[in-house]
Structures are given as structure tokens and as C-alpha cells.
Amino acid sequence: MMRREGLLRLVVLFAGALLVMALVAVGFANAGEEKVGTTAASFLTLGAGPRALAMGGATLGLGRDVAGSVWNPAALGWVEETEIVVSHSGLENQSFQEWLGLGGRIGKSGTRWGIQGTYQGDGSFEGRDASNNPTGSFSVSSFAIGGHMAQQFSPNVTVGAGFKTVSEKLGDVSGIGTTFDAGLALNYGIVGLGVAAQNLGGQMAYSGASYDFPTNVGAGLAISDPRTGLSLAVDANFPSAYYSDVRAGLEYRWNDMLALRTGYRHELEATDDPLTGPTFGVGAGANGFWLDYGYLLAGSGSNGQHRVALTFVPGRWKAGDDPFGKTSFDDKPRVNQPSASPAKGKK
Predict the structure, then answer these.
(1) Quick one: how far is CA 305 from the chain centroid?
(2) Of 70, 101, 103, 286, which one is least surrounded by beta carbons within 10 A?
(3) What is residue 110's DSSP assignment?
(4) CA-based angle 241:237:216, to the nearest 5?
């Protein structure tokens, strides 16, 4: 029996390694920084979740929650309870991004669902004509909403896919389009593997002109040891219209009440890129409430990126944890009743 389990483990790891190497090969064949600026809806590449940001963006093989499904839809396949996540990101030039995600399991089946929405405000800009004369200010904002589904085929394999409809407004010009995501996650013991593709297919249409979405393919490896609370993750990403990058992160969890994180992201073949730099973060919570914070220290010396999120798991709001001794949120506090007196003997 032990020999069979060992052989199965080797097969799973070998298959995962083949997937990673194949994806890396495809990534190097398709990624090209010469296409920078040729795609629409670039805000989709920022993702969401302070945990991923704090770990340098490495999450494809590590994510097992609603926030992780932004990067790899297969991460939803590990979700056991309904989760609600609200996230805020402070970006460069005083722009910001808001993200809301919720998802959970359909009954006791292996199917999971997720719904997500993103809004990014980039502020107002002053327009100029060909003679550099001011023509008035215009605002820039973006919005995306979509859904994901994931299926757990065994305790070790999940597959996910989804879509998102995107809208952008650039002054008087607006565009809309729909694109798709897909991912695979393997988990065996302390080892996790993930491959994912984001923003596949579809185009953004602006008053007769169409532009591709910023497609990205990536692969990740993670090692998580619950005995020590340590997790290590490494990702490689190959976007269609930006520099390829390598991301690495380390996390330490203490009793599922406190998490300390750090990482590093490096944009290949790029110098002083604002996305290159060390990352840091912390998380804490209990009883179905969790607060996360992540920070990217930009390598170019420009302003860094902040991200904070609140995660709610209603199924863990247990009445038994109530310090006032309620059995439910509607019950009155329990009152100690005097124990029955022992029966008196007959005279």
C-alpha cells in the first residue's frame, strides 16, 4: 500500500512538473514587451488580495480561497465555506481600486461558485490639443464584473473557469467587452501546483475600434507545512503585452490567528520597473473574521502599492464562542440554575 501511494505521488508530481514546463515554454514563445500599451483594460493585471501582494504576487499554486481565484479560478475548488471578501488598493498617482468577491460550495457537491466585481478610479486629467492648449479635464475609470465556477475532481485536483465583462470610460469615449479565465490546481501533501490563464479571448470595443485584453499565462509551485505554519510559493508569469516576471513569497502562520508575509517580484529584462521590488504584509483574525494588509515597495523609487482586505466567513460565526453564553444570536443569555436537591429520605 505504501509503495502504491509513493508511486501515485511521483506520478502526480511528474505530471505537474510537465504542465509547468509546458506552460513556461508557451509563455516564452508568446510573451513580448514590444506589445506594451497595445491592449485595453490593463487594470485587470493588478489582481486582488493583500496576501498575494505581500508574497510578491506568488499565489497560483498556493491560493485556496475566493481571493486566490482572481489569479487562478481553480483556487475556488478548495473552498469549503461561503466567503465574502472586500478589498481596497491604493495605487500610484492617487488612483485606487475596489474589489468585492464572494463564493462558496454548492451543497455537499464538489462544485464551487464565485462572483467578483472590480472598480478602478484613475482620477481626472487635463486634455491638450495639438498646440498644447488646454481643452478641459476628463475622467478615467474602469469596471469589471464576472463569475467563476470550479470543480473538485478528487481531493488532489481542481479545475476552474469563468468570465468577466469589462467596461472602461476615457472621457467621452467608452468601451466594453467580455473575456475569460481558466486554471488547474494540483495538491499532494505539502506540495501544490497551479497553472492559469487570465483574460483569454474577447476584445474591448471603443466606437468602432477594437483592442485585445491583456492575456497572461502563468505557473506556480507552493510548499505548505501545517506543522510549522510555513508556506513558500514561486510563480512565473508570461503576459502578452508586458515583461515576463518571477514572483516568490514566504508566509508564517501562527495558530490560524496571525500571519506574517514577505516576498519579491522581478520584472525580467526591465530596469527600474514600478512593479519590481520587495513586498511585506500581515494578517490576523479569528471566528470567521480576518484582516489582511500588503505593501509593494516599488523598485523605481515611485510610490508603492498598498492593499487591505476584510474576509468574512459567516459559517464560523459560532454562538458557542459568544462570551455572554448565548446558544444563538437570538437567545437570551444562559442563567445558571440551582441543581436539584437530593431526594429526602423517608421518616
Answers:
(1) 16
(2) 286
(3) S
(4) 45
Q: Please, are residues 83 and 104 in contact by the beta-carbon 8 Å criterion? A: yes
CB contact at 8 A, 262 and 54: yes
CA distance 202 to 169: 18
155 in any annotated domain: yes
pLDDT at res. 128: 55
- The vertex-188 CA angle with 289 and 312, nearest 5°, equals 10
Q: What is the pTM of this model?
A: 0.78
Domain count, the chain: 1
User: Does residue 184 sit within a domain?
Assistant: yes
Q: What is the pLDDT of residue 323?
A: 42
Query: CA 175 from chain center: how many Å?
Result: 25
Nearest 5 degrees, angle CA 244-CA 246-CA 248?
A: 160
The candidate with the shortest Cα–Cα distance to 193, out of 224, 147, 167, is 224
Grid cell at residue 285: 483574525
CATH code of the domain containing 133: 2.40.160.60
Residue span of the structural domain in which 284 resides? 2-321
Among residues 144, 124, 138, which one has the least CA distance to residue 46? 144
Q: Using 50, 70 and 90 to split pLDDT, how confident is the model at 260?
A: very high
The residue to which cell 486629467 is assigned:
125
Domain presence at residue 344: no
Q: How many Å apart are CA 100 and CA 121, to the nearest integer?
A: 15
- Grouping H, G, I as helix, E, B as strand and the rest as coil, residue 68 is helix
Mean pLDDT across the stretch 318-341? 47
DSSP single-letter state for residue 15? H
Q: What is the pLDDT of residue 339?
A: 45
Give CA separation, 57 vs 196, 208, 247, 258, in Å.
14, 35, 6, 20
Distances (CA, A) of 220 to 29, 74, 183, 340: 18, 13, 11, 63
Domain membership of residue 140 (yes or no) is yes
Judge residue 284's burial from the number of C-beta atoms within 10 Å of its C-beta, 0-12 exposed, 13-18 middle, 19 or more buried: middle
Contact 288, 310 (CB under 8 A): no
